Fold this protein.
Amino acid sequence: MDNLRSPSFLEENLTPYFRSLLEETAEKDIIPQQFLQGLRFEHEYSEEFGQDASEGEQEESGASGEISEQCAARRSRGPMSYPDRVRILNLRRNLNQLDNLAKEKNIIFRKTREELNACHLRIKTLTMQQQDVEREIEREKEAGNTAAVFRLQATQRRLCAELGNEKDLESTIAEMLNENMLGMWKIEIEQGKFADLRKQITQDEKELDQQRREQAEGRLEKQEERAVMLKQKCLAEEREQQKATEDYVQKVSKALDDAQRNREKAVQFLKSSLARSSISTSPYHYISKSVRKKEASAEQERQEYMQRRMETVLSLKNNITSTRENFRTLQARNKALELEAKEQEQKTEKAIQAQGLNVRREVLLHKRQEEFERQNREFMEQQKARKIEIVASILKEEAHLEKLRKQSHPQRHKKQGKLSDEIRWRRKTWRYIENACAEPDAVVAQKSWRTPSPCSSPDDTAGGPREPSCKSVQQMTPERKDEEKEEDSRETLAEPEFTGLWDQECDISKVADSRTDSKPLGASKLEKEIFAENLEKLHRGVIQKHRVSGLEFKGCPFYSKPSLIHFKDFDIGKTYKKKMILINAFYSINYCKLVGVSEHLKDFFTVHFDPPGPMSAGMSCKVGVTFKPMINEDLEGEVAFLSQIGSFSIPLKCSTKKCVLALDKELIDFGTHVVGETISRTITLTNSGALATRFQLRRSAGSESVHTGISPPSFEIPVNAHLAEKTSTGKRVSTGIAGSDSEKGVISFIHSEEVVQNISLPERSRIDVCSTISRFERISDMWSEVEVTEDNTLLTPVTSHVELAEITLGKVTDGDIGPFSKVKLHIIFTPAVPGDVSAEFEITFNNPDCNPLHFSAVAVSVAVPVWVRNPDVDLKICMYDRLYQDCIVVQSRATSALRLKFDVCNELANHMELLPKTGYIQAHSSFSVQLKFLPKKSLPEDAGKYFDKQTRVLEVPMTIVVSDQRKPVQFTVHAVVTTSDLEIDPAEVDFGYCSIYEAVQTTITLKNKSILSQEFGFVGLPEFVEIQPNDGFGTLLPLESLSLDIIFKANKAKEYSFELTCKTEINRQFKLLCKAIGVHPPLELSHSLVQFSATALNDVSTATLFVINNHVSLNQFSHAVPRIGKGDIAPVGPTSFQFIIPEGSPITIMPCVGTILPGKKCLVEVSFRPVLGEQLIKQEAVEMMRRAAEMRVLRARELEFQRKKEDSLAGRRRLGSSFYICQPSRERYSKHALKVFEIPEPENILVSSEEYIAAHVNLIRNFTKQFERYVIPCLVASGAIDEKKGPENLQYSPYNTLYLELHCPAIAPSLLLISNNGRSTFNFGCVAVGHRIKKEIRIQNISQEQLPLGYSLLSPFGPFWLLNPFRTLEEGESKQLDISFCPEECRTFFEMLEIRSEKATLSITLIGEGVIPSILCSVEGDVLNLGYVIAKETATSTFKIENTSSIDLKFSILLESLSPNRDKQQQKPPAFLTSQGQMDFVGTQNYSGLSVFSVTPVEGIVGTGKSQEFTVTFSPDHESLYYSDCLKIMLFAKEIIRTIQLKGCARNHMMFVEGGDPLDVPIESLAMTTSPVEAESDKLTKPILLKLECVQSETLVVPAVRELRVGGIRTAQFASKKIIEFNWESLSVVQMKGFTIDPVKGTVDRGQTKVITVSWMPPAGSDPTQLMTGTATLILKGDVKEVYSVYFISRIVIK
């Protein structure tokens, strides 16, 4: 089975089998020949690539060539190689061909089996029919019907022949079925053989797909990186441009300021000079004033001009902005409309294609229809404008005529019987134009026209026939009036809602009626009675009854010749005269008297009659009648006479000019004619009247040419069930719907003419306009009257009426017909489709009194004997220099053979050919013609008008000339001719200098210039070139441009020059020239690509790599040496490198500069720390501020609206002082709320501001992911780096540069630091050494899962401690970490705390500083002595401490006397008993138990560099000289930084003596003595001891000096004694011993002290070894007298 996978087995077994099987099936016409050729091409292609693949496998693997081993080796070494991919493609193509062949065999087998079943069914049917015929033959033979027997026998013979044919066909089909079954079994066996191979190929294809997906993802990442880099570059350019703009603005502003200052100086100098000149000469004062005015006006004009320019620029800017927005809106709308139109067009094409129609033809018809509708709409708009102009001219002319009529005949309107025709038709015309302008789409209603008859007046039609006598004219007037009212009611359907004054005007017809009454004079009852009496008297006297032979004479006494006085065809203004003869018809003498004409005719007629006197029977007399018409109307009346027998009258009639029109025939029968002929018939229109008119010939409304035979397809639209609803809502419904179509519910496109009212205007121009309007309305209605269904489906083709009008009109369709003339009209019949054709025509006239005439035409058309089955031959899309063939079938229905000649136009003789050129088609058969089309490059120039160079559509009419047939058979060949060229841009690629460690990529564009898709592939690629995507293989869509990446990787240092070949599916080749120079750098990187893991924001990812120097020898024959192309070899020695890191990138490389010795390598660490850019954060801060400002303004507006609403609801009830008091505050609040918030620029946002911090946190929360790609160049130079000069002294070659590619994906952090405003640095500040502070850090889980946490180890000997670590953090949960800081020494501490999760690490920086606290105290020394105080009084003293450290000091004041351990210390022996070195700080205390000393404040904080003042209060309650206490200053409740001893003395009296040596202990009992000895103790002498030591040397004796201070206590007590006196007594003895006291006596004020100096100089002869003593008395006088015994002890000290 392994042999099945080898390419050799495929070449030897699989492909030959395909060849034999395909050739066998091709011979049997099972598959087309073209498929066989394509499969052979694929086989040759697979052989070529199979050979390449086998060679590649032999070079790479070196094994036996088995596919399984190659696959295993390929999986072990990584990505799939090029030969493997080619092998998989070849195997898959062969297997697919095998599967397709199996499917085709299966389909053929099924079809053959179905045909066999159908053949069996036909055999069975024929057998049954044969049996039935045999039974009928026997039955007819028995009946003796010989004719039926012969007919049945012929039928039996036919059935036998058909049964035999079917059995032969059955055997043939059965044989084909067996062969197909055998072939299908063979194919299934072959498929079974390659089952294992199929599985292996499927697995390889999955791996190949996976590899392609990975490559596609890699390319996508590269593209995204490029986009990011381009964006960064654009941002950098924008920043540079912005900076340049700012510099320019600064320079301009500075120049303007300088100019302004210079101008001010010049103005100042000018003013001073003008002032000086004004002082010298007064006339110049006025000149300077005028100059200043001119300057001021010029300055004002300049400012106004600048202001106008600024406003113009601002308005222009706003207009440009609005125009851009409008343009964008229009573009978006147009784009949306285009997309919608494309979608609609696609839906339409799909619907047409689903119905099996020609999509291109139907779409073309639809577009033509839309174009026609557009033109029709434009024409209708033009006609509307022309109608408006016509209306204006009519109104103007009517006003002018009315004015003339009033001036010429002011009484005419009152006398005429009815409105004139001109006015009536003007009104009709006006109403028509108003209706046409107001409702152009409304269907014009058709009047009920009368039957064709000679023209007659409306009065005659309405009144009917009348007798010439005994009827008066008055009987006709009401009928005429009613008729006019009926016409007006028919014409004017709109009635006003309210009757106006216009309805109350005088009716002219009523005036005429009152004038034409039968009364001669009056109309009253009395007048009628008088008239009757006079008439009776007249009859009695004048008219006598005559009797002849006893009979009374009856009848008319006179006869007139003529019996009717008729004035025909009169003209207004002319005079007509007629004569008549009156003959006496009585049998005796008679008289005749003229009575007169009818009353309404007296203005027009004059009768000339001379009474003849008595007239005998048969005698005659003449009467003259003169007629002068003044109105153009028909008039009727009589001329009345009176005779002896009675009255009689002669009828009088006046007729206007009229048209009397008629046709010589009403039916035109064309007879039978062949399709393609043209037949003409003539019909004569005769006018026997005296009035000319204009006629128009057209088709009758609602009648069309109808075929009774087969008609071609036309378009119809199904009518919805709710068609009546659409009609009622005002939508247009077609008037051309036939009765049958309306019953079926279908509306057809019918070339119908809309029925338009025959309205004639007085002027010829109006007639032309109306006729033109009607024609275009008929054309537009043909398309616009179609109702589209709601589902917007396209027109559905069904059989309907014929669209083409075969019976048409001749050239004369309208014109003028004169009086008593004839016009011949031609009707033409051009048969196009076989069948019966009929059409109805109508002749209309501009004269409204002429009824339209109708006639019809019928014809029969017979089809041509020869026709083409498919008149439109579509060759689809063809390429140049490719042969295309098609078969054209010609059908014949003739009964004899006909000769055919096939003609091709001369323009396409070199490109298209019909074979054979001449042939004979037999009767009732078909003839096939082969069409060969080989388009050449010269087709656009040769074809001429048949070829459209823009759309590249070729449309060629072809002609088949048939003998004995007038009309040649035509068909059209359609094709879209395109090229097969591919364009490669650029035509030449130069990769430049390429390192052997890098791959250089360039992009080329492959453009398909054809409108057909083409498969392409780059074949024969060198091993150092790769083309992506899809390894250079793919399919180009029509006119598509595809970008391909050519990857070049040099394998050695040399110059490269090669060609890349692109081959298409039709075996066309296109070359691409490439060249490059290979470079071998002296150094190399261990990894040229570093892919960091997904790193969260503010986290760090680190990778390591090596920079290696492998260049140790110059021997180029043993190994590859570093060089550039064929240049010099790089020297062996130390080589330096330097990484150039882009500015602002989150990349860190350590070290970035170094030198490597030959054969050595250097470790480099690359770190990636993604952070958010400062500019991005500032922009987000500005955006957040803008949103907050908008929300504030919106909230203020809502509050304002709510207040206004409340005020409106309150109404006027809130009037008064309170309303007016509250209103200003509301206005101020509203103005404050609606105040415009000024948003700062991003550059003005400070990094330490709250807005910046909030924006930073917001961006972190909303951060999704980001991928960045960096390419870091590494410059390489020969030589070592100088430590003093750095890398600047080296010469780096740009061609030896190495590149390190970094893939840096950044993701959102899972942990968010909430505390410290999101800052990751926690500064504990300065903390005193030994003290501890604690800070709280709150973190939140912003991921969507639970996070297990880990922590980095803090230094166990460091000052930072993590107090409460927790292990998990739920989704959205936030917790608090406690960290303490306790420094042990004075220095700065820095540590990193990492909170680790699975996806990210949160790094927290801990910073703190240990500080030793220090202060400065204002107390010098350690003792603060408060001096002497009167017992039970107080004294205060202050001191300050200053903080000289860098931290704030928290202090507390402690007194030893208030210490809780004081009781324990009192149980011990006194310090003077135990040890002389110890001293007890706590001395005498108050008897009351209260503290003698108190300090304020007790505790507080002293800021850095600040000071704190303390107040010490001394409050003794009894006399003692040993009050003391210890004050301690403690910092941070731990460390005592200063100790101060507090001392004070209390006396009961106001004087004291201070000095001398102590004679008692400083501790006294707290027990109060109440013995009387204390009262007397004040009177006792108090001792004072003074020790003096005199220093004596050999040459010098230094006397001993001591001091005593006598002072007075400032107190409010003892007000009577203000000074203290003191004096010494018993000084003589002491002075003899060498003691000197100064002063001996004196006074001391209160609050003052005086020093008494005691000195001792040993007298001569004193023994140095003996002490010298003496005593003196010191007396103080104050409030009491005190006596002190001062004991002097002195000694000599020898040095």
